[in-house]
Amino acid sequence: MWCLGATVAGFGGLYLFLRSLIRARTIEDVPTSRIRSASQGYNELIGTGRNMPGPQIVSPLSGQPCLWYRYQIDERTSYGNSGERGWKTIERSTSHGLFIIEDGTGECIVDPEGAQVIPHFDRRWYGDSMSARNGGWTFTAQYRFREQRIEKGYPLYVIGDFRTLGSPSCDMQDNIADVLRELKKDPQRMHAFDRNRDGSVDQNEWELARRWAERESRRRALKESPTEARNVLSRGDGQRAYILSGKSESELVARYRAQGLAGLTMLLGGIPTAVWMLLARFAA
């Protein structure tokens, strides 16, 4: 068992080392482009973020407007007959709404789907109820909360697939209604929004579906309308790193190099340990 754990740690360290090294080198090697003159393809942009026209993105936990959010709620619970206490995740969500980055020369729509996001804001706190907004005692609180946000108006670093597409020219509300009608006709896709698995979609779950329909209608409009050029940054084919970051370029490079060093340490510690354990077992 210990041998298996050492092997897993070693190969996990190898993966972390290679991935982090590649990302650090990619960030260093790709020059920063200006939005107005950026070529089609893989690009690095630096600017500030703002919301798309229409409904604003609001983080459910804090109620704060933002460009992107991710949150998680854990509940303190007991495991097994021993009554050992631990944390169990009972709710989590990530926003997928589009937003805009601008750098003084132009603007680009950012689709966060599939991105690694390093937020501006990352807060953890504890509370005695699901609606707690303020901190509580770590050792007695029943719930643990974490919220991450990309804030509007703050410096933003992005690297991904840059394309110039058509902009939406049709009525957004009609588009959303069309997408929702399609969704209702597809039981399998509707089932994905039944978070509590009670066989029906309640009001909160339907709101999640409506938000998804809004994002989907915007993406369709961007692809279908040729009336005005719009720049869009996305994951592309997924072959290269797609990163949205509240940290600067230099901070990101330092972060990935530190992760790579941690991975190398795991590799150099895990694999030799596994080999030593195997040799000791066969020699016994």
From TrEMBL:
This is RING-type E3 ubiquitin transferase. GO terms for biological process: protein ubiquitination. It is found in: Membrane. Keywords: Membrane, Metal-binding, Transferase, Transmembrane, Transmembrane helix, Ubl conjugation pathway, Zinc, Zinc-finger. GO terms for molecular function: ubiquitin protein ligase activity; zinc ion binding. It comes from the Bacteria. GO terms for cellular component: membrane. It catalyses: S-ubiquitinyl-[E2 ubiquitin-conjugating enzyme]-L-cysteine + [acceptor protein]-L-lysine = [E2 ubiquitin-conjugating enzyme]-L-cysteine + N(6)-ubiquitinyl-[acceptor protein]-L-lysine. It holds the Pfam family GIDE. Residues 78-164 form the E3 Ubiquitin ligase MUL1-like domain. The chain crosses the membrane at residues 260-279. It comes from Acidihalobacter ferrooxydans. InterPro entries: EF_Hand_1_Ca_BS (IPR018247), MUL1-like (IPR022170). The keyword Membrane applies. Its EC number is 2.3.2.27. It is a multi-pass membrane protein.
